[in-house]
Structures are given as structure tokens and as C-alpha cells.
Design brief:
Chains A, B: It catalyses: L-homoserine + NADP(+) = L-aspartate 4-semialdehyde + NADPH + H(+). The structure is a homodimer of 435-residue chains. Chain A is α/β, with parallel strands linked by helices and 435 residues long. The first copy, chain A, contains 14 helices and 17 strands. Chains A and B meet through helix 1, helix 2, helix 6, strand 12 and helix 12 of A and helix 1, helix 2, helix 6, strand 12 and helix 12 of B.
Chain lengths: 435, 435
């Protein structure tokens, strides 16, 4: 029977849930693993705050160093970058294994942390950094370890998925759906990290690094949120058989990887399209396993604690293994080359006067850029455009075949200059066969 | 850099896929794991047969003992019970780690095998025995290790899910859908293991043992297949908002477990209901993680090989770990007590003459057995019953609240004796909030 001391730094929502799980399920975990995991210290600067679970008084401290000194596994749950990084590096320097849920830090400065852990041959667990309780990091590192990973498509942010679900189902506009999300506690007072796509981008960056075995510069990740999504496009897409999702995408393309987050149309019949509300899901395609999907609660105190504790258990097994074999993870490829000129299908909407010759003009420009049109939808509906109230302006939707992002952007710049095109064109990427 | 010799016994569909994966992705696996996994021997009695991948001549043998002698990890893929068991036990006796996809053997005689592996402190991997390439065993053993598992609901057999999907979507009858499944290669010439529920039952027995930490007597598992599913009930269920699935269920109820496989209605809006065609999915509910779902191809050469190789890699890591810490699995609870008198909601269909007083008579019997009616649907449609052509016989559907299986069975026996009830009543269990 092994014995492992666990300490937590940062007792917010997830920290409290983790303490609760480690105490409440201690016997069960001992039975399952043959290892006794004992929570020895929990550090936080504020012990006055009301929490869902009362951490026993004798475990509380305000000094994070006390946690590091007394633990074999240090759980970092303070969040943010600066202090969290200091905590993790100090723990590693002290020879402790580390478990963290800090996607922000790992996505932007993971290299320094992973290199430090590797240098010291210490286990670092980060299951809780992506997809809450869904064991997707373990699936990538171990369950699918024999596969070359071809694609990862994820719905990795519950707030935006809730908003898009409501826009799709109830035809709400973005502001109304956001307001509703805030009222239900699904969106924070300042929701920008979520709705502008950064949270999902941090998560897909971590998955991409794991899947493709190298570090990437987070600045290379293309990030576009849902703030500017017009309900008209959600509606037109629905009519064409598509559901709009904020997809986080990682793909290997030759020697490069595409890593991007943006609103994306996927076929409404696909499994990912049916992931609704605050749920998260990750579709991973491997060369042997084909397409697999992992689904669950992507946030919240208890689900995230489940992931943290799974890592704590792995760290414990690692510590009891005298020859220290780390779980499969390969940073051998060095820096990943991120391809920015990605190759996708596109949904384009132009607001145009209902006159002959308009489509021809737009189609000509697309042809000049080698962009092939798959289908066209012109609706008999009138767009309300400020200053053009007298005219009949209609939405013209063009679905393209696969084209390069740069060509699309250049074509759109040119089309925008055409006198027939009122307002800025709308561009939404389309992912075929998401699942 | 570690070095692990791998041998395969049984080179059928999955064996061939496994050999292909180990050879084709050898470099990738070495990079990811830091371990070289070398396929050293493959045994089969027939090397004349055409295979999707040609196993190199120098690896082939017809003598399984040669595989055991020359490998560190022995992969058993012969299937069946007798010879497979002999192979596994001989490999363990020789001190080799074992990987197997043999659900039939593990479900019915797993105890002997797991005890032998435990006694010798050897790794035994069986990810491929459930859900093809979906890493669900790993999720239960490791990814969700901190959780008390409350429920497992699985669509674990692709053949039956294909048939039920076609019956639901196209209103086909069972025989037509089965014929179609055979034509598409989704059902075997003798499909009884699949359609009578045995395959799913083997799989849920394995998941139940893992989740609840004890062995169970496979004879205690309630198994009912889809052979007698009437398309009328699929249709009536659809109207009530339900989709019919062959669900494999494991639940902890007090100190007992329910382990059962039967056609089950679930709400059409739930994620499990949307798992269509030959895909598999497993929903696992834990006390902390909440509901998670794992989804993918539940069979086939390549997906299953992906699971086999994940186990081979785990076995390799285990072998290189001198202190030999096994992944969490707990058989400490001894024999699991299987509860047969389960507690569920029910869909009941009675074919009755369209006359006053019929519902009252049936409702009285149900009341006598403490079965509470949730809703009633009487359709204005005529059932064709042999010998009663002159009468207007209509289907009367009753959805009950939760009731005990024994009470339902006893009530049905009594109702069947009522002169107003033509034909045998139909009973289908209903699972609320499957996801």
C-alpha cells in the first residue's frame, strides 16, 4: 500500500471541489488504486469566503510554500499566469509532481513548464485544463497512443455553446442570448475570454501540442469569437442544413498544423452539431481508430475536480514506480509550424440590391481567385441596412468548395469594393464531415 | 529507451489490424512513448487466407507457444473460450503480460484469469473487449478513477443499433432491417450473438465488474435481444418522444448492482438516442464528473487494433516500471450481488377491443400491484390479430412510473388472463434521463 501526500494551492471553485473529492472518496480511491492519497494542506489567501465544502481547519494555510514543502503532489489551482507559474516552477524545483488546470498558462508558456518537468523527470498532469471532467488528455496520450492523429474538432467552451444553441433553437440574437447566459450563471460578468474565443483557443493549443508532439507559439493560433455572429446567418445556415458552433480545430496538414478557433458551420445531422447547451465535446480522428468523440461537462467544480484527481492518482502511481516511466507524450518534434493559410469550405453572405447581374459580378471575382462555388442561396427577404431604407437589399449566400483562406480574404476585399455590395460581407467557415 | 517484444496469437481481422498498426506506426509509437515495441511473432493456423495486410513471412508461425516464448507482451486474439483461455493462462504462467479483446471469455470466466494475473502481478489489458477503439475501459479505470460510478448506459453492439436505427428511421420491420444489415456486412450469417443481446451482455458485464470492483456471475445478467421487437412499438414510442435502443445497463443500487441488456426507450432528444447506425457509445455517470459519454466505432479491424495497441503500450510502460504499479482496478469487493428485481419505468402495450371499461380493468390490476400509471395512449388504429379479423382491436399503450420488475411481470400475467386482452402484452423498459 503506497502513501501519497497531496496539497492544493488555490481554494476557489475547483480547489474546493478537489478537496471535497479527495476527502469524500478517500476510501474508494484507496480501494481502487491500492494507494492512500492524503490531502495534507490547502493554501488560499482568503479563508473567510463561503465555500460549498468546508476544508478542515487543520489543513488550511495562507502560505503556498507550506503546501509545497509538505506534499508529494502539488495541485496548482490559482489560475492566471504569473503567480501560478511561480508556484509550478517552485514545486518542480522542489522535486514535486504537479497537477494543474491552468490552460491559459500552459497554452501560452507551457514550453518552459513542460521542459522543466521533463528535465527533472517529474510527472505533470493537466487533464483538467481541457474539457472539464472529460478524460480527453488521457485519451490523446494513452487511449489513442497508437494512432497518428489526423484531426481534432472540439466544442471546448460551454458559454459560447450555450449562446449559439439558444440562437439556433430560439432564433435569439447574440445580445439576448448572452444576457440569458449571464442570468443563468453560464457567462461571467466580463465574458470576453469566453465569447472572444480565447478560452477555446488555449484548450485547442494544448490538444494540438499533445497530438502533434511539439510546442507552438500561441500567437500563431487564429482566434475569432462569436461576438459578431448575426442571427440571420444562424438562420440561413439552419435552412441549408448547418448548425453554427464555435469549433476549435487542430489538423495536421503535411508538415504543418492548422490550429484555429472560429464560428463554424457543421452539418446539423452530425454528432458534434447535437452537442447543445453548456456541454463540451471533442472529436478526435486517428488513422486507426477513425472518429471518436468524448462528451461531458466542460466546467464546474465537481467535473473539473474529477479530472484533477485522475491526475493526482496518475502522479501517485508514477511516484511509486521506482523507474519513473512517464505517460506517453512527445515533445520531440520541437516547434510546430502553424499554417495560417488554411484550406476550408466557406459560407459567404453579401447584402446586395435585388437586381440582375449582381451574382455574376461577385462570381467573377471569386473565379479570379480560383474559388469554386458549390451552391448559391438568394432569399426573398429584405435586409435592413441603415441609410439604404428605400432599396430592396437581399442576402445572397454562396457556399464555396474548398479554398485557401488568403484567396478568400483577398477576394472579399475586392468584392467589398463593388458598388453592388452593401455592407461588409460575412464569412463563416464550413467544416464538412465534422463527425 | 525501452524495448518490448510483442507477439500476437490469432491473425484474423483484429490480429491483422494489430500487426499492421504495430508495423506501420512503429516509429510514431517509439517517439510518443520512448519505448520500442517490436512485433516479433504472429501465430495462426492458416497462413493461406487473404488478409488486408501481409504479415512479414519471418514473423509467421503456426505454433502459439513460439509466440509466448519470444514475447514480453502476448496479444490473444483467437476468440472463443477454450483455446483462448489456455493461451492466456499459459502466457501468464510464463510471466508474460497479456492483452486480449475476448469479451466472451472475460465476461464468463474472467475471475480465473484476473486472479491469475493478480497473483503474478502481471498486467492484463482488455480495452479492445468493449467498444472497439473507444478508450472506455481506460476512462473507467483511470480517467474517472476518483468517482463513485453511479450508472453506465451503453449502446455496445453495432449490429443491433444499425437494425433499430433503420426500424426507427424508415419504419422497417425487424426482418427487413436484419436482411439489410446482412447485405451491408453489419450482421453475420448467424447473427444470434448480436441480436439476442449476448455480445452487449458480455461487454456490460466487464464494465460492471470494473466499475463496481468485484466479479459477477454472468448467469445473473438479464439479457433480452431485439428479435421480437415489433415495428408498431418503435412507431408508437417515436410518437411519444422516445427512441428504442438496445441498452446495456449497469447501476449501483444500495449494496447490489443491476446488470441488464434489453430493448429500452430513451427520450429522442438525448445524446444516446442520437447514436445511430453501427456506432457505439457509452454514457458513464460518476458522483463528481456527472455524465460523460464516449463515442466511436465499436468494431472493425482498425479501431479494435487501436485499443489493442493502447494496451500493449500500457503493458510496456508497466514492464519498464521496476516496482510494477498496476493501473487502478479493484476486485476487492469479491462477488457482486446482482439485483434481478430491478426498478424501472415501463411501456406496456395491450391489444384490446375498442370497448368501454377495458382500460379500467387493466388499470385495476396495475393498481393491485402498486404500479402507478404515468400516461395512456390509445390509438385509433386497428391491429391485425389472427383469428379476430371481425373485431376492432386497438393498441392501448400505458407508460408507468417507476415500478419493480417482479410486480410488472406478475401484473402482466394477470392482465393476460383478462378476456378483453387479445394477444400477449408487450413490455419495454423506459430509461428516463439516459443522458
Amino acid at each position: 500500500m503506497g502513501f501519497v501526500r497531496v496539497g492544493i494551492i488555490g481554494c476557489g471553485t475547483v480547489g474546493t471541489g478537489t478537496a471535497k473529492l479527495l476527502i469524500q472518496n478517500a476510501d474508494l480511491i484507496k480501494k481502487k488504486t491500492g494507494i492512500e492519497f492524503k490531502l495534507v494542506k490547502v493554501a488560499d489567501i482568503d479563508w473567510e469566503r463561503k465555500r460549498e465544502f468546508e476544508v478542515p481547519k487543520e489543513l488550511r494555510t495562507t502560505d503556498y510554500k507550506e503546501v509545497i514543502d509538505n506534499s508529494d503532489v502539488v495541485v496548482e489551482l490559482v489560475g492566471g499566469k504569473t503567480f501560478a507559474k511561480k508556484v509550478i516552477l517552485e514545486a518542480l524545483e522542489a522535486g514535486k509532481c504537479v497537477v494543474t488546470a491552468n490552460k491559459h498558462l500552459l497554452a501560452e508558456e507551457g514550453k518552459e513548464i513542460f521542459e522543466e518537468a521533463k528535465k527533472r523527470n517529474l510527472f505533470i498532469g493537466f487533464e483538467a485544463s481541457v474539457g472539464g471532467g472529460i478524460p480527453v488528455i488521457k485519451a490523446l496520450r494513452e487511449g489513442l497512443a497508437g494512432n497518428k492523429i489526423l484531426n481534432i474538432l472540439g466544442i471546448l467552451n460551454g458559454t459560447t455553446n450555450y449562446i449559439l444553441t439558444r440562437m439556433f433553437e430560439e432564433n435569439l440574437d447574440f445580445e439576448t442570448a448572452l444576457k440569458e447566459a449571464k442570468e443563468k450563471g453560464y457567462a461571467e460578468a466580463d465574458p470576453s475570454l469566453d465569447i472572444d474565443g480565447w478560452d477555446a483557443a488555449h484548450k485547442i493549443a494544448i490538444l494540438a501540442m499533445l497530438a502533434y508532439g511539439g510546442y507552438l507559439d500561441f500567437n500563431d493560433v487564429y482566434v475569432e469569437g462569436i461576438r459578431n455572429v448575426d442571427k440571420l446567418d444562424v438562420e440561413l445556415g439552419k435552412e441549408l442544413g448547418y448548425t453554427l458552433k464555435l469549433l476549435a480545430i487542430a489538423k495536421k496538414v503535411d508538415s504543418e498544423v492548422e490550429v484555429r478557433v472560429h464560428p463554424t458551420f457543421i452539418h446539423s445531422e452530425e454528432a458534434l452539431a447535437k452537442v447543445s447547451g453548456v456541454y463540451n465535446a471533442v472529436m478526435i480522428e486517428g488513422d486507426f481508430v477513425g472518429k471518436t468523440m468524448f462528451y461531458g461537462q466542460g466546467a464546474g467544480s465537481h467535473p473539473t475536480a474529477s479530472a484533477v484527481v485522475a491526475d493526482v492518482i496518475d502522479a501517485g502511481r508514477f511516484l511509486l514506480c521506482s523507474s519513473k516511466v512517464l505517460p506517453p507524450v512527445n515533445w520531440e518534434e520541437g516547434e510546430l509550424k502553424v499554417r495560417k493559410n488554411f484550406y476550408s469550405r466557406y459560407y459567404l453572405r453579401f447584402d446586395v440590391p435585388d437586381k440582375p447581374g449582381v451574382l455574376a459580378k461577385i462570381a467573377n471575382v471569386l473565379a479570379d481567385y480560383n474559388i469554386s462555388i458549390a451552391s448559391v442561396l438568394q432569399k426573398e427577404m429584405v435586409c435592413k441596412i441603415a441609410g439604404r431604407e428605400g432599396e430592396t437589399i437581399v442576402p445572397l449566400v454562396i457556399l464555396t468548395h474548398k479554398a485557401f483562406e488568403e484567396d478568400i480574404q483577398n477576394a472579399l476585399k475586392e468584392i467589398q469594393k463593388l458598388p453592388v455590395v452593401v455592407d461588409k460581407p460575412v464569412l463563416i467557415r464550413v467544416e464538412e464531415e465534422a463527425y
